[in-house]
Amino acid sequence: MKKLFLALTFFIYPNLSQAEIVVTSTGLITGIYSWGVAEVVPSLDGDTLITMPTGLTECPGGVYIKDSDYADRLLSMAMAAYVAKQTVRFQVWNDTDRFWKGSADNYCQLRSIQLRK
């Protein structure tokens, strides 16, 4: 019975193991683009795109901050690093369901920012 339950769990929830948190290479932010209201794709409202070579095949050109209660904290750290030309490293989800919907290019959803010296 226990084996049957485990087998069913793997078949019913196959996507749980696909989402993974990965770390980008350390680098300089090359651009920050923020949306208030996105008329074409409403789900982008409040999102911020950060461009930087990430070293990741899933999202090589950058990451994005999804509008949330914590978005301002992440954005303020990214802006400080950008202005100070401080190197950063991002922790992101490489799950295709979390790729940014505002571009044909893949941008991974940001989980955390690490300022690096």
The end-to-end span amounts to 54 Å
**What is the helix fraction of residues, given as a range?**
10-25%
Helix tally?
2
Strand content: 25-35%
Number of separate structural domains: 1
Give average pLDDT, whole number: 84
The CATH first-level class comes to Mainly Beta
CATH topology: OB fold (Dihydrolipoamide Acetyltransferase, E2P)
List segments where confidence is low: pLDDT < 50 over at least 5 consecutive residues: 4-17
Major beta sheet summary: 6 strands, mixed
Give the CA-based shape.
Answer: globular
Per CATH, the architecture is Beta Barrel
Helix-strand makeup class: alpha+beta
Whole-angstrom Rg: 17 Å
The H-level CATH homologous superfamily, spelled out, is Nucleic acid-binding proteins
Order of helices and strands: HEEEEHEE
Quaternary structure type? single chain
Strand order, sheet with most strands: 1-5-6-4-3-2
The count of strands amounts to: 6
Structure description:
The protein is an alpha+beta fold and 117 residues long. It has helices at 2-12, 71-84, and strands at residues 21-23, 31-34, 48-51, 62-65, 87-93, 108-116. The N and C termini lie far apart (54 Å). Helix content is 21%, strand content 26%. Strands 1-5-6-4-3-2 form a 6-stranded mixed β-sheet. It is globular and about 40 Å long. It has one domain (18-116): Nucleic acid-binding proteins (OB fold (Dihydrolipoamide Acetyltransferase, E2P)), CATH 2.40.50.140.
